[in-house]
Amino acid sequence: MSFEKDDNVVLTDKHSDFNGEVGTVTQTMESMFGDVTYTVSFEDGQETGIPEEDLEAADGVAGEDDDEN
């Protein structure tokens, strides 16, 4: 699954300070080899160079902007 700018994602990297946190994709970068990495902003900072396999869609996670009536 690829992600686009402004998508809400969950970082799944046990070596990161932001592991398990929900953030927003702020930038996507593609290497000359076709690999895509992401920059994700979190409440307390940001992390760059995140590979796609370390991200999951944050569907239904509290804090997302849902349409409320």
From TrEMBL:
- For the region Disordered, what residue ranges are annotated? 44-69
Q: Which domain of life is it from?
A: Archaea
Q: What is this protein called?
A: DUF1918 domain-containing protein
